[in-house]
Amino acid sequence: xxxxxxxxxxxxxxxxxxxxxxxxxxxxxxxxxxxxxxxxxxxxxxxxxxxxxxxxxxxxxxxxxxxxxxxxxxxxxxxxxxxxxxxxxxxxxxxxxxxxxxxxxxxxxxxxxxxxxxxxxxxxxxxxxxxxxxxxxxxxxxxxxxxxxxxxxxxxxxxxxxxxxxxxxxxxxxxxxxxxxxxxxxxxxxxxxxxxxxxxxxxxxxxxxxxxxxxxxxxxxxxxxxxxxxxxxxxxxxxxxxxxxxxxxxxxxxxxxxxxxxxxxxxxxxxxxxxxxxxxxxxxxxxxxxxxxxxxxxxxxxxxxxxxxxxxxxxxxxxxxxxxxxxxxxxxxxxxxxxxxxxxxxxxxxxxxxxxxxxxxxxxxxxxxxx
Length: 371
What we know:
- This protein is α/β, with parallel strands linked by helices.
- The protein has a single domain (3-7, 12-369), classed as TIM Barrel, CATH 3.20.20.
- It has 17 helices and 8 strands.
- It has helices at 3-9, 21-25, 28-35, 44-52, 58-66, 71-89, 91-96, 116-130, 145-155, 167-187, 209-221, 231-246, 249-256, 281-284, 297-306, 317-329, 334-369, and strands at 12-16, 37-40, 103-107, 135-140, 159-164, 202-207, 264-268, 291-295.
- Helix 4 (44-52) runs parallel beside helix 17 (334-369) and helix 11 (209-221) crosses helix 17.
- It starts with a helix and ends with a helix.
């Protein structure tokens, strides 16, 4: 049995953090599904590499040029076609799991991260345009994103909440989800294709490796090696403990009685950035029920080859809390670091989005001359 399927038996779904048209059309994605991949995530950086870094989309761009599409229309047509094809490939998993798995995620324009009304409008429009029940719209966990999450869940739109780095931000995201569920339970879906409370799905994408990168740097500046490579996992384990607290008790039980699902924690940024760390460290150490781990293709291969399958999320939680306390005693503010990481993450997604639009414009100009 594939190690990815073994993960599933422990309550964790493996999703792939990669999209490219040739992966879809060549049968490569179907092969990953057979190995145990249960969903796909995308972001502007992934699409920028896929569209700018290959000829996979040139023929489609040629056809769109013939119909005199604008730059924005070309971008959206390419992306929606990919997302739609992926959603179709995962539809059997979605149906067989009763809507628990088999999702593909598409991010709203990263330039909308500080604009609540526009985020809601674009997320709703994309969800309706795709018209696939197993699509999630990615919304950043920024101050402007939080009320958008409540509104979108409350109208029946599946949401992948992205760019979560810290515990306090995670708790705010979970609160936004619960408030959305309560609204949805009271009024029902309000958008085309919207899901009722017993079918809506959401994940909270909690970023991992970038925390170690930032904290390790701060530790190096004070010549402390003891906690290097430990805080990202500790931060994640404490967040998961909070997840278990949030999705219990009377408030949650009332929603659960109406068929609501927990908002699974999704571990994102799980490739090891430090070559001195095991390449599967952020998979091996974060395995537990009601979670997702989204893996780039290289990490999928590494985990299949030498990853360790065992429930690890509930181990060492007291030690994780101790390590975070020790970090504070050293004068390193984890909350400030995670807040900065989110701000940098918004910029980091906006830059490839802009580069992608520039690349499409250049391809459109070049292909026009070849007509």
